[in-house]
Amino acid sequence: MVNLKVSISKLKLKTPILLASGVLGSSYSTINRVIRETRIGAIVTKSFTWEPRVGYNTPIVAYTKAGIVNAVGLTNPGYRALKEILGNIVKNDVPIVVSIAASTSKEYAEIASFAEENGADAVELNLSCPHVKGHGLEIGQDPEYVGKIVHEVRSVLKIPVIVKLGLTDRIVDSALKAEKAGADAVSAINSIRSVVIDVYARKPILSNIYGGLSGPAIHPIAVRVVFDLYKNIEIPIIGIGGVTDWVDAVEFFLAGASAVAIASVIAIKGLKVIDEIIKGIEEYMDKEGFQKISELVGLAHGN
Amino acid sequence: MKMFLETLKMCKAEIVKVVKEAEGIKSLLLETSIEKPIPGQFVMVWVPGFEEIPISPSMYERNVLRLTVATVGETTRKIHSLKPGERLFIRGPYGRGFNLDEKGNFLLIAGGYGAAPIIYALHELRKKGKNVAYIIGARSKDKLLFVSEARKFNAEVYIATDDGSLGFKGSAVEVAEKLIAKYDNVLACGPERMLYKIMLKCLELGVKCQISIERYIKCGIGICGSCVLDPKGLRVCSDGPVFYAEELANTEFGKYYTYPPGIKKPIE
Ligand SMILES: Cc1cc2nc3c(=O)[nH]c(=O)nc-3n(C[C@H](O)[C@H](O)[C@H](O)COP(=O)(O)OP(=O)(O)OC[C@H]3O[C@@H](n4cnc5c(N)ncnc54)[C@H](O)[C@@H]3O)c2cc1C
Ligand SMILES: Cc1cc2nc3c(=O)[nH]c(=O)nc-3n(C[C@H](O)[C@H](O)[C@H](O)COP(=O)(O)O)c2cc1C
Ligand code: FES
Q: Is the C-beta atom of B72 inside 6 A of ligand 1?
């Protein structure tokens, strides 16, 4: 019998697939729907900021041949709304991870405490938003600052602290600093800063000009990052980027991820894709003779 | 997979004709290569330098798409200023349209620019040989939409104007309430207050009812969370915009409208 349960620090997931931050995670009603209709292992909320953010004007999404470029602009009702949102979620054993995008370590710590008080099972520090100034990648590419934020949040929290890093040259250094400061897991990667220009409009499509590329185009890059992180850190890794089917997910496990999160594929294939991916992993493990996800984790590193 | 991503592609659309339909409402005929929409589906329309907004096509014939647009704010005003030969950019079609394969006859109810998807549904229903009636409501007779077009397609037409300048003096709902029981299906689009009353009436009488509704649509593809109906978590852009009355019952529909980032405004 295949066992799909995984643990990320203190979090117990019934399946190794998480809903990544940003898709269907800004209101309690969509979160409840994902819990009701799928076998999702855990849900990461949309990133919450200190103040409410309306987000950018449309267009907020643009086409590329192997992915989506988005600049939603961290639309969220502000962290104080977490009380009501978390209060209305019917968890059914699905851990809720609250994602936070703040601009100072103090804000990160305060929002994290508020989330914990109101029932969050873990927090994910988004240190990698590619298109909102002062709320993302600038922070994640400074390993010292990453260490400082994690330390500050860790020291006020009991629940696990996950750090979400994006593609930068110093991602391994940032992950090492996060681990040293007490992070319980690392998520990688976020979408990658991009621009799309329409050749007939002769203008960038996104109102914000810059957006984040996600979807199949970024998958091999994300696998490389997870592969490198696995060689350097001990804490669990959540692989994110371009998963469209079970093969992509298994690839992440083999590279070193303990669990996998998905976002864009929901737009491409609908909610049902979650169970399709889980079933595919189950069948693969059954046919290939694996009983537990942990047997797959990092297997591609063997000699 | 490839198929879906393709629908995200911006398609240029050249304006071939502009028609004034009524006070503050114009139709644009556009030459574009997007796939044929199902009536009730919508497209995202981008005017570079302005916003990208959802519009439900009011007709499609061999690469020509018709959009019927009311001036509401900046982007729709800009659209009204465009001339033949100029371009717009379009992606889609998106969402779930009307199911026109339901059995029996159809009562179509439209208010304001809600007549856009309704008249398109009327074209397609008549092509299938279905029996169709069209109720159109407006403030006065110069604001009525698609009356002669509906007649041309041999639909029975009922008119309601608030000021009584043509047809029944009163609302489309009042006309509809007397007729609904005679039909197997109702399709409706218009102001939410009107749609809500129609929903309740159809639920009471057990008449199959499909309603096209509006929420704030930003991505159009189900990932940004801007168009969600609480508490069921329905996304108007991808689970709708057309819903059966049963799906809308016990949701915020008819009571309040959730704007991003979660601000609730009552429906007046
Ligand atoms: C599925 C759907 C189909 C539609 N079909 C038509 C149609 O066929 N013809 C037509 O004239 N109008 C249609 N609309 C409404 C149209 O999208 C809005 O009138 C338009 O977006 C207004 O833009 P603006 O910049 O002119 O106004 P703004 O000044 O930006 O906004 C004025 C008001 O318009 C509404 N609105 C603005 N942006 C959006 C948005 N992105 N999504 C939804 N509502 C918005 C809001 O209520 C807002 O308060 C449809 C809307 C939806 C959701
Ligand atoms: C529409 C959209 C919104 C997103 N919003 C957030 C966010 O608020 N916080 C965050 O950490 N990541 C956000 N992401 C990034 C995703 O969580 C994920 O890291 C990225 O999309 C790569 O995964 P994918 O290829 O499966 O989409 C968003 C992605 C998309 C497509
Ligand atoms: S408009 Fe983005 S989810 Fe519907």
A: yes
B85: contact with A, CB 8 A cutoff: no
> Is the Cβ–Cβ distance between B122 and B132 less than 8 Å?
yes
- Class of domain B2-94 as given by CATH: mainly beta
For ligand 2, atom 2, the nearest C-alpha belongs to: A22
Which of the following is catalytic: A40, A42, A97, A129?
A: A129
Q: A192-195 and A185-188 as β-strands: parallel, antiparallel, unpaired?
A: unpaired
Residues A179-231 pLDDT 10s = 999 999 999 999 999 999 999 999 999 999 999 999 999 999 999 999 999 99
The structure tokens listed for A254 are 């083999």
Distance A208 CA to ligand 1 centre (A): 20
The tokens describing B20, both together, are: 């004034």
Q: Is the pTM of this model over 0.90?
A: yes
Per the structure block, which two tokens stand in for A45? Answer: 């909320």
> How far is ligand 3, taken at its centre, from the CA of residue B100, in Å?
25
CATH number of B98-212: 3.40.50.80
List the domain range (segments joined by +) for residue A234. Answer: 6-53+75-194+215-301
Distance, in Å, from the CA atom of A204 to the CA atom of B8, rounded to the nearest integer, reads 15
Mark the ranges of chain B whose per-residue pLDDT is less than 50: 1-2
CA distance A6 to chain B (A): 26
